[in-house]
Amino acid sequence: xxxxxxxxxDTGNDTSKDxxxxxxxxxxxxxxxxxxDHKHCGSLxxxxxxxxxxxxxxxxxxxxxxxxxxxxxxxxxxASDPGDxxxxxxxxxxxxxxxxxxxxxxxxxxxx
Amino acid sequence: xxxxxxxxxxxxxxxxxxDGALEAAFxxxxxxxxxxxxxxxxxxHYRKTLVRQISQHAHSEIVGMLPEGNWISRAxxxxxxxxxxxxxQDEAGHGLYxxxxxxxxGTSRDQMLDALHTGKAKYSSIFNYPTLxxxxxxxxxxxxxxxxxxxxxxxxxxxxxxxxRAMIRVCREESFHQRQGYESLLTMMxxxxxxxxxxxxxxxxxxxxxxxxMFGPEDKDSPNSEQSIRWGIKRITNDQLRQKFVDxxxxxxxxxxxxxxxxxxxxxxxxxxxxxxxxxxxEFWRVINGDGPCNRERLAARVKAWDDGAWVRExxxxxxxxxxxxxxxx
Lengths: 112, 330
Description:
The structure holds 2 protein chains of 2 kinds.
Chain A: E1 25-31, E2 38-45, H1 49-60, E3 68-73, H2 85-89
Chain B: H1 2-6, H2 16-31, H3 44-63, H4 65-69, H5 78-103, H6 109-117, H7 134-152, H8 161-191, H9 194-213, H10 225-230, H11 238-256, E1 266-268, E2 273-275, H12 281-291, H13 295-308, H14 310-329
Antiparallel strand pairs in B: 1-2
Helix pairs in contact in B: 3-5, 5-8, 7-8, 7-9, 7-11
C-alpha cells in the first residue's frame, strides 16, 4: 500500500512491492465453454504464471466451470477511474438512436 | 487495519467538508440499491466494518477445515471420503474467495493472516467444538452448513460488490455441503444399527446449540447491526435468521427421526414460528473469547501450518524471480 497514486487496477491492491514475501496477485479469467469469451471470475496469489494457472484450476474450476483459463498479473491491468464515469459513459445516455428499438417500423417489417 | 484502509488511495485524502458531501452521495447510492466497487469512495467506517466481517468470514472457512479434516482419513467408505475431501477443499476455496474480496479493501493477505495467528481476529465460534464421531461430519453438513447458508444467502445482495460476488459463488457450492450431510445422516438413521442411530442423536445433541449461536448475539446485544443494515452489508437481523433456521430444522429433524435437544421448542400458532429455549450466552462469549473446547488447538494448527509452509512460499518466490531473470537475459 506504499503507492498511494496507484489507481490503475480494479482490485484496489498495490501488487508492485517486490520486497514483500507475499506472492503477487493475479486476476483469473475463465472461458466457461467453447465459443464463449473469457470472463473475469476472481483473483489469487501465486509466485509465477505457471503456479497461478495451477491454482486457478483448483480455486475456480472445481465443478467444470471452465474449458480455458487466463491469468494476468493484477498490476498489469489499467482500469478507468470511477470518478470519470460521468465523463466517459453518461454521453451515451442520450444517443438512443444507436439502438434498434429507436426506429418504429410497420408491423410487416418489424422483425428487421 | 483502520489506518491501512485510510492510506489506500487519493480519494481518501479529502477534507472533512468534502467527506460530508461524499458521504451523502454514498448514502444515496446505497439507498438506490447500488453496488459499491473497490475504487469507489466509501466511508472509512464502512471499509473497516467490511474488512473485519469479510476477513472473519475467510478465517472461519479456513479454520472450518480442521474439525472435518480430522475425519478424512477415518471416513467409513471411499465414497464418503471422496465427498468429504471435496467439501473440505471447497472450504479452502471459500476462504480464498473471501480473502481476495477483503484484499480489495486495501488490507493485505499477510496482514489478515497475522491478525488470525496472533489471536486479534475472530472466527466463527462453531469451529472450536470437537468432532468426536463420524456422525459429527453429517451433522456439521446439516446444521452448521445449514446455518451458514441461512447467513450467507442474504449476503449475496451485500452492497459491497466483491463480497456479494464471492458469496454467490460460495452459496452455489454450499448447497452440496448441506445435502451431503443430511443424506449421510439419513442413511445412518434409516439403514443403520441402533448404535449408529444413537451416534447421530448424540451428535445432534452436541451441535444444536452451538449451531444456533452461529447467528451471533441477540439483536438487542448487537449494536453494530443497525448500521450494517443501513449500509446494506446486512439484510436480515441475527434473531430473524436464527428463527428462520429453527423453523427450517424442525421438519428436517422429524424426517430424520432425531430429537432436537430443547424441551422448550414448540410451535407457536400465534407467531407462526417455533418458540425455543434460551441460548447459553455465557458459553457463546467464552468460546468467542478464546476459551472453547478447541480454541487453542485450532489456532495452534493454523500457526503451525503457516510456519511450516514458510520455506515453500519463500522457495517458490525465489524460483519465480530466478526464472524471470533468466527470461530477461535470454
